[in-house]
Amino acid sequence: MRKKIKETILGDALEFFRVDSSPSEFEALGEKALPEGYVDIFIKPRHPSTKNKYLLTEVKTGKAQKKDVEQLRKYVKEFGDETVGEY
Asked: How far apart are CA 4 and CA 65, in angstroms?
């Protein structure tokens, strides 16, 4: 899944969120533990800097429910302005 994201939609996601970086500048990691739970895929810069931008990804096998979106919002809120997307 992590490899597929990099190969297919990461460039589109970076463009959508107005992140001025190439997909090759990021790496996708598996589960990341957070106080609120585990984010499924944690996309981060390969070479961290003082202003990092993270993409948090929640994977569902069926349809996403409202509670799933709320869960992801909590994760994004934990990272504050270091994540892309809204909370």
From this structure: 23
